[in-house]
Amino acid sequence: MDVSLSEEIAERASLPLDRIGSLFAVMILSALVFLPYLLMRMSRIAQAEPVQIGAAFGPGSIKGWALAAAFAALAVVLALKGPVSRRLLASVAGIVLVALTLGWAAGGLLPPDNRFARVSVGGGAWLLFAAFALSTGDALVRLRLGPGARLLVLALALGALAALLLSGTWANLSIMKEYAGRADAFAREFKTHLFLAVGSLLAACVIGLPLGIFCARNRTLRDALLPVLSIIQTIPSMALFGLLIAPLAWIAAHLPGASALGIAGIGPAPAFIALLAYSLLPIVSSTLAGLAGLPADVLDAADGMGMTPRQKLWGVELPLSLPAILTGVRIVLVQNIGMTVIAGLVGGGGLGVFVFQGISQTATDLVLLGALPTVVMAFAAAIVLDALIEFSRKSRKKGRSS
């Protein structure tokens, strides 16, 4: 038999496996075999007892094994080559199964009339969710959705998450019990978190955009300012928060009216100033890069039309630099949402309060109560800003072509 013919027959006989999908399938099967689906505790700080997926709905129930079989079938779908739409449906189905069955199983495992027992999400469920979420992201990337479609997908995902939270499906999970006892505090710290992250970004834009424009016009200022801002970026966040305590405490004690403005050694003030300091370099650098990368022919055309420097700045330079500036804004917003967690250590509030309370109390679900919303906010902010950047790039191309 001809060698090439034998190779072709062997290739056709082999399974058409997708390399990335096979990796997700291995993750799913590993979660089913090696990791617990849920963790059972008789109190919030007691030693956890692992519950495998087969016993997730009770020792004598076959629902757990049926669920495991469903996940295994979805793993096979992801491992095999096929239409992207089929992979996307399988991935979304996996996320929905994980989300729904966690709440249903937790309700069945909790002993009746026991207010202290807790059921937490196990490592297997986390790994399953990660595998299906990554597979969903991979399928969406392969579909090459436009910015508007990505925003629609984000809105649907957030809507589904809100529906699950409002429906009470997860009410028996430990993290939701932690939330139930801290609902008012969570709302307050969530608002503080948004204020620190978004407020410091807005302040950085007010300061950083003019500085970026001046740096683009003045090389001496650029050479002096950028190294200073770069040095600030190298200071560890915890150290910078700590360094601000003493000077702000002195200002609050000696400057009339400072305390009334909220300036103090601990609290939101040092957190806000530290976040602002970290935000300046990306804003200044992106503004400078956007202005420095403008096409010379466009600037010459603006000069030929008799535009004044101010008209050229607001009518030509800044609109064309918008994609680069928004890239800096995206970096800062995602960075600040994550770094605001550390504000909880200096009394600044935010979701970091729950993270550090949970660490001190060895309460993992209390840590997650602060960490998971932070991750969701950062993820959503990145998608929204990416879409805005693409919209601005398309608008720039249309403006240049016209």
UniProtKB/TrEMBL annotation:
Pfam families: BPD_transp_1 (PF00528). This is ABC-type proline/glycine betaine transport systems, permease component. One of its GO terms (cellular component) is plasma membrane. Keywords: Membrane, Plasmid, Transmembrane, Transmembrane helix, Transport. It is a multi-pass membrane protein. The chain crosses the membrane at residues 20-40, 60-80, 87-107, 119-141, 153-173, 193-216, 228-252, 258-281, 337-360, 366-389. The keyword NADP does not apply. GO terms for biological process: glycine betaine transport; transmembrane transport.
